[in-house]
Amino acid sequence: PDYVPPFPVHEENQIPEKEQSLVLDFTELGPGHVARIRKQVSPQGDDYTQYETLTWYVYNPSPQTADLDVFFRVGADTLNYYEVGMRYAESSLRTGWQRVNMDVAQLANAKNDSADADGVIRTEIVDEVTGEIYNVKVVGLPDLRRVKRYYFGVANNTRWPVSGTVYLNDTILR
């Protein structure tokens, strides 16, 4: 598909800087299934608590995939993580780029809420810039002082198989 970045690309001497996104392509993703990709950030774990904001861009090019749940997980492993989730159909946009802005302290404090019977904490966080409300899950005992990896993915919680593409761009700590 044609790629359009979420922001103007810087040029120097009339040469644009390299700009690219992580692309998640999926075909016939069945109901109840997940497609995800992982990025190893640091083998020893990075401290995200020294930052105020965690920001990333996500792109949905098609209305046919707007009902999928898009998620971003950050933590030490598959048993201890924070998950921020959104659904394009419930956002102000059904397609296009969406910038997600998380207050790092607010995300860390999500683990102070009460857990459900399955041991998972489910809460919501408001995007500090757009006012969008995102679902947050806290699984295990995540620690933003020792982030080793993050995951980006889609979950098909519809009743039919879905094919499509979703992009992730520029995970930024400020």
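the 2nd protein, sequnce then structure:
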Amino acid sequence: NVFMETGTDMGESVASVSCWFAEFDPDFGEISELTVTGARSYSPWSKAIQYPIFKNARESRYKVHSVDVMKECYENANKLFESNPNVCLYRASSDQFIRDWVEKVNSSDELRKNKYFFYLDAHWYKYWPLRDEIKEILKLDQFIIGIDDTMVPGKSDPRFPHGDFGYELNKGTP
């Protein structure tokens, strides 16, 4: 019931999951319209991203949390999702954010009851915090981890692996 994402970027994942949660729980909010900004995902076959605009959003047991270190990504997403208090956006380093989040969850009986899906971005630049993020998440009792971009089509090259993750993880080698 809690979606945790690292790497908000253009907010495509937040938009999709928010629409799903709105179908599960009327308290999450009713989608009054979908807006298009012209933003597109990175795949060549993608359509413009549709962002939900909510009305009647109340406190829901379903929550979307997304963190990005980039100021522009955080600010743009904050504007796009301001109509829903169940969508929480943060500007921080993802590894520190997850460390703090896990500590908060483990110190709260109420938060420990949630089921967490962590959607981790494999990242594109020099800093790859996946190991630190996963190390922290493993301290929780119940969770699922999905990793985005472990092999980036058109970007990953088996001759030049992207650090300790990326192509090598996709091939199943440590």
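DSSP finds six helices and seven strands in the chain. The two ends are 31 Å apart (CA to CA).
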